[in-house]
Amino acid sequence: MSVQKKLGEIKLSRVTFRASSRPQQENALQKSTDPLASRAIPAVKPQQGEGAQKAADTRQSGSTISLKGLLAAQRLTRELKNRVALRRKTRARTQNCSPITIINEQTPVNSANPVHRFPNAHVKELIEEFLATKLKNEPYDPCTCASLTKDLCEDIKKIVRRVTPPRYKLICSMAIGSKHREDIMVTSQCLWDAYSDNVTSCSFQNRTLFCVVLVYAVYFE
């Protein structure tokens, strides 16, 4: 009985050993003989590697983009703060600055010193308006130009006298010519006080004639 038990144990152990070792050998044979399995395994691994690399690249690019945006936003806020600070400084300087003292024009020693100077710009506007109303539709006639210039000079002196300060003498000179002839140039030269005296020149022209007016304002002490 003891011998039979030992033989049975040996048989059972052999059976269990064979049963446990056969599936492992069959799996090893299938792996070695199956060409598709050997080809499929390396094909899957690169795909997994490429996907992981793409995910890493996207993460890296996203991190770099977000970092660039953050730096740009910080730079923009810094510039805005600097501008606001500069504006505040300029406003504070303008508010706290001392008033500017304007130095009056000094009168030369040998010149006259009128209380009010001759209004050259205002006189020029008045003469231009007067010539436009009087000579807008006036045709050129050499026979009537002499009397026309005399009348216009008297009218201009009356108009200018209304806005001229006291103690000023007025001299009016006028020239009228035809536009169909050659051009002319009107010049003048005189000896006077450049500080107190002044001159106004105006010109006007229509289809047939041109007119040049000179008004001298000489201060008399």
Topology:
Blueprint: H1 2-33, H2 35-96, H3 120-134, H4 145-161, E1 168-178, E2 198-205, E3 209-219
Antiparallel strand pairs: 1-3, 2-3
Q: Helix count?
A: 4
Strand content: 5-15%
Please give the largest β-sheet. 3 strands, antiparallel
Helix fraction bin: 55-70%
The chain-level mean pLDDT equals 76
Unreliable residue stretches = 1-21, 32-48
User: Looking at the structure, what is the overall shape?
Assistant: elongated
CATH architecture of the domain at 120-219: 2-Layer Sandwich
* Main sheet: strand order: 1-3-2
Describe this structure in words.
- Strand 2 (198-205) and strand 3 (209-219) form a beta hairpin.
- Helix content is 57%, strand content 14%.
- The chain has four helices and three strands.
- Mean pLDDT is 76; it is low at 1-21 and 32-48.
- It has a domain at 120-219: 2-Layer Sandwich (Ribosomal protein S3 C-terminal domain).
- This is Dynein light chain Tctex-type 5-like isoform X1.
- One of its GO terms (biological process) is microtubule-based movement.
- GO terms for molecular function: dynein intermediate chain binding.
